[in-house]
Structures are given as structure tokens and as C-alpha cells.
Batch of 2 targets.
Target 1
Amino acid sequence: DAGVIQSPRHEVTEMGQEVTLRCKPISGHNSLFWYRQTMMRGLELLIYFNNNVPIDDSGMPEDRFSAKMPNASFSTLKIQPSEPRDSAVYFCASSSQGGGREENIQYFGAGTRLSVL
Amino acid sequence: QKEVEQDPGPLSVPEGAIVSLNCTYSNSAFQYFMWYRQYSRKGPELLMYTYSSGNKEDGRFTAQVDKSSKYISLFIRDSQPSDSATYLCAMSKISGNTPLVFGKGTRLSVIA
């Protein structure tokens, strides 16, 4: 398997523009997580889905952020309008709900580095 | 106070040294403990995964969990320049496929 695939790898945009980040989880995984990493705050959860259903979005900063998972193989994270403080690396991770504890491991994509000017 | 505290370093050691990385946490509900390694401009990759208290060894890496002290450690023996990376501790309450709470990471440099 190719692992978790995120696109784009880098995004530079101007304040006020809409930004869409994309994620393809590992085939067969039914949990998907969006995290954001900054120097100040480290890696923090934004939202996660189980079986395509959003379970916890308490980490989403504000209404400018939205996430969808229309099917088991695709998710998007959208920021509209974007602001300079949204500049960060955004990671997507996926995992499976296996019967054994060792199966419940989160695998991360390479991330999208977002710069909002 | 953050739920998980981790010294950000940086930590610089000579090749062959034993490295000790640590995290403390405040929430006694955490049951699953992980260490991720993150190379520059890459995503985190799982290094070690432990449940509850005890030790786990995998090659040059040993993970320890002391729930009574709310303290976890990662030891790297015979450190190599290729171990130079940021090490993130992570933990969760229910199982590894529920949201993880991360430490901020410790940047390690192993000097040849």
C-alpha cells in the first residue's frame, strides 16, 4: 500500500483565499484524523472520522474550518477565508479498528505545508 | 498545564551514546502510549507502542511506562546519526485509533 496520501505537499496562498487540503487514507482503514502542527503548539487534533462520520470536531479552530469525508477513500479539510495564523503543517492519519490493540495504530501522511501570506 | 509535557531539547549526543527521552502527563485516563519519530519535513512514523505500564523492547529501542508516576521514557542504545530526528510521545485513553494527545517533541542530533 502507498500509505496515507496528502495533497498538495505545499500550498502558498494569500489571506482571504480558500484553501482545500486533501487526504486519501490507507485502503481498509475506517478511522481518519486531521492534525495540525505548529512550533508553538505542537501536533494537535482538529477532527476525526469513524466510518466516514465526524466524531469529534472540537479541535477545529473556528467556523472558517470545515472537513468532509464523502467516502472511505477521500477526505478534505477546507479553510475559508484563510488567515496568516493558519500557516502550519496539516497532517492526515488513518487507522483501522482491529480486534487487537496492535492494529489500532495511526499512520500519518507526509503533510501539507500551508503558508498564508 | 498541557496534558502531555515533553522537553523540546535540542539534545545533541555523540554516536554510540545511550539516549533517554521522556514525557510526563497529567491525565490518569491515558492507557495507550506511543513514540513517533519525525524526520525533517516528513510525517510522524510510529516507533513504539505500549499498553498500560511496563517495558517494551525492539532492537535498539526500549519504551518504559510508569503509570504511577505518569511518566514514560524512550531509550535508544548505540545511537546512530540516522537516529537524528524529532521524537514525539503520544497517548490516548481508549485505544490507538482514537485521537492522540502529543508532546511537543524532542529534537535529537546524533553526531558522528
Target 2
Amino acid sequence: NAGVTQTPKFQVLKTGQSMTLQCAQDMNHEYMSWYRQDPGMGLRLIHYSVGAGITDQGEVPNGYNVSRSTTEDFPLRLLSAAPSQTSVYFCASSQDRQSSYNEQFFGPGTRLTVL
Amino acid sequence: GENVEQHPSTLSVQEGDSAVIKCTYSDSASNYFPWYKQELGKGPQLIIDIRSNVGEKKDQRIAVTLNKTAKHFSLHITETQPEDSAVYFCAANRDGGFKTIFGAGTRLFVKA
């Protein structure tokens, strides 16, 4: 198993550009989520999905869109990039939304800089 | 909203010493408290977790304690080694994993 994979590893955007961060998992996990990590602020939840076709907002959803057309993939779209979106983005998945106490498996992250 | 505070933000210890990281949470309904370790350039990885129905859990050199009344929990690492150097995050959630709230992280340095 590759686990959780993310592409690209690094990305530089200009203000106003759009892009999609890719996330895929091969563990047949139902739950997937996107976090951003900023210095001194830990990990903050952007959006999450409890299964294909179902998504919901987290703590900091503004400026981001998600969709979940398959169990494996959960892309994060930046609609119009802003310097405040400069961050490291992590995708995570966990096994079964009906189970309690699920370990989250994180991808290696995407470092995004918006100029 | 729910908040998790973590202290200290940086911790430096000598190899072989113990390290303690403390967290407090605000939502009294939180019942699951995982700890994640993040090595440089990698995503966080679960190292230990505790549920609200127990007060302490150990796994080799790592232990976590939970005080539900005071709403705080702590990570204890004994006999620290250089490979323990990393950023550690505490977290809290209700009912198993959704909308997990993370602390700000503790950067641990273990000096050889």
C-alpha cells in the first residue's frame, strides 16, 4: 500500500491563480480530510468527507472547495489564491466512520507559496 | 469554539532525560485524545492515544495521562533518544475522529 499520497510536493502561485492539490489513498478509507499547518497554529481542518459524494466544512473553509467523487480521491481546489493561503497542506484519511477512535493517516504534505 | 492549548512550544532535553508535554482542552464532551509525532518534511503520525474512560496508557517509553476533571492530558517520554527529536501534537475530538482539534505543537530537541 502506498498509503496517502499528495501531489505536488511544492507549488508557487501568483495571487489570483487557481490550482488543485491532489490527494489519494489506497486503504479503502471512508473518511478523508484536508488540514493546513501554519507556524504556531498546529493543524486546522479545512474540509472533510465521510464518504463518496459527502463533504462538509471544517474550521477554515473559506477560499477552498472540495469534492469526493470516488472513495480514493479527495482534491482540494484553491479558487483564487491569496498570500494568506501560503501554508503546508496535509491530507489525511481514516478507516471507518462508524467506528470510534480512528487513527488518521497523513500524507507527506504540499508546501504552497502564494506571491 | 473548541480549543486545545499545548505547552511548551519548544522543549530541549539531554539524551536519557524525560520529556513532558501538556495539553488542555475546552470541550468537556471530548472523549478521544491522540498524540501525533511529525518528523521533518513528513506528515504527522499517531504514536499513542487515550480514551476518556481510562486515566493512563503506556507503550514502551511513551505514556499519556488524562485528567477529565481538570480537562488536561500529558505526554511523557522517558529515556529520550536523539530520534525522539520532532514536533509533537496533541489533539482532542468527540466520538472517534471527525473535526479533530489540534494543539499548536511542541518542538522537542534531544541533545546527544
